[in-house]
Design brief:
There is one protein chain. The protein is built from 16 helices and 9 strands. By secondary structure, the protein is of the alpha/beta class. The protein has 3 domains: 55 residues, no CATH class; 210 residues, TPP-binding domain (Rossmann fold); 52 residues, no CATH class. A 7-stranded parallel beta sheet has the order 5-6-4-3-7-8-9. A two-stranded antiparallel sheet has the order 1-2. The longest helix has 27 residues. The chain is globular, with a radius of gyration of 22 Å.
């Protein structure tokens, strides 16, 4: 709620300060201090209007494609507390972090790697190979130092990621290196009791059984090399047949996952889910879901088939990422006892 109050203050102050006898005063401060009851009423009206706008946007999204019936199923699972959010980079970007692609291109500028070759890797979705190329071209430790400098700092959280603490209070899974999720949950008064990194995520079922709030960081954190997965060599080591991290993904996939801010393209996690579905069969595993943007010109049916192979079923949207995620999260919680 605190972050919504900050957004309300920003909306009050959009027209600038009020000047009295040459002194500037912020409008939210004037209203709070001189008319506290009016401030509460205005805030509640603003909240209700924001909620109505979000729900209207959600209805617009659910009217498209095959979204509505699928969303009803997601909402039923959510109300039973049967969904774990799987958070990707798209949920951290509003807080000031670059996308993984943007970060790699920034590092590229300080290497001797040929841009054409690098462009080809990115175009083909070979991000691990691209990261490995940069890693090998730089002096020892330099690539990891750039990762830490970029992703270890925790700026003020922004965007729909701030909704998560009020909606999901058991476990959150992420492949992000940054600390946005931890910061959001700390700020909301719902700090994680456990933080499980890499192979430690095997302990998640135990933590859930003990009703302990846990943050699972599958690929580690920005400020330590231990359990951090960045390059092709590291991915191959951690995701090889029988490797621990593949076992971890099989463990967490025994619960229904909701992917948020994830591109779900050539990610190793998705490849592992595909392998698991081939081995176990979709009928023997829970379905997973995603809030996923479909871009103009993209073959939605081909994407559907790729995701179905991993037992993932999307709610498609076409407009602004943050606006649509915010709207769908609002709709998800509608009628639930929070």
């Amino acid at each position: 709620m605190d972050y919504l109050r900050e957004l309300f203050h920003e909306s009050l102050n959009e027209e600038g300060t009020v000047e009295v006898a040459g002194y500037p005063f912020y409008r939210d401060v004037i209203l709070r201090e001189l008319e506290s009851e009016g401030y509460r009423e205005a805030f509640n009206e603003w909240l209700e209007l924001r909620r109505e706008n979000n729900l209207a946007k959600a209805e617009e999204i659910l009217a498209k494609f095959d979204n509505r019936q699928r969303f009803k199923k997601i909402q039923e699972l959510y109300k039973r507390g049967a969904i774990i959010p799987f958070v990707g980079a798209g949920m951290s970007m509003p807080s000031g972090y670059p996308s993984w692609t943007a970060f790699l291109y920034d590092v590229l500028n300080d290497t001797n790697v040929q841009k054409n070759a690098f462009d080809t890797l990115i175009k083909n979705g070979e991000y691990e190979e691209a990261a490995q190329l940069l890693f090998d071209n730089l002096p020892h430790g330099t690539f990891l130092e750039r990762v830490e400098n970029t992703f270890d700092e925790v700026p003020r959280p922004s965007g729909p990621v701030q909704r998560l603490p009020a909606l999901f209070q058991n476990a959150v899974i992420t492949t992000n290196f940054d600390g946005v999720l931890k910061k959001c949950y700390d700020d909301a008064g719902f700090s994680f009791v456990e933080e499980l990194k890499g192979a430690e995520a095997k302990e998640l079922p135990k933590q859930l059984g003990q009703n302990r709030r846990a943050l699972v960081k599958l690929h580690g954190t920005a400020n330590t090399s231990r359990d951090r997965i960045l390059t092709k060599v590291e991915y191959d080591h951690h995701y090889a047949n029988g490797a621990t991290l593949k076992q971890v993904i099989e463990t967490i996939s025994n619960r229904t996952l909701l992917f948020l801010g994830c591109s779900l393209t050539t990610d190793r996690t998705i490849k592992c889910l595909v392998e698991i579905m081939r081995e176990k069969g979709a009928d023997n595993s829970p379905r997973h879901y995603a809030f996923l943007k479909i871009n103009e010109g993209e073959d939605r049916l081909a994407r559907r088939d790729e995701l179905a192979a991993a037992n993932i079923y999307p709610i498609w949207y076409t407009d602004d990422h943050d606006e649509c995620i915010e709207a769908l999260l609002e709709k998800l919680a509608e009628g639930a006892e929070l």
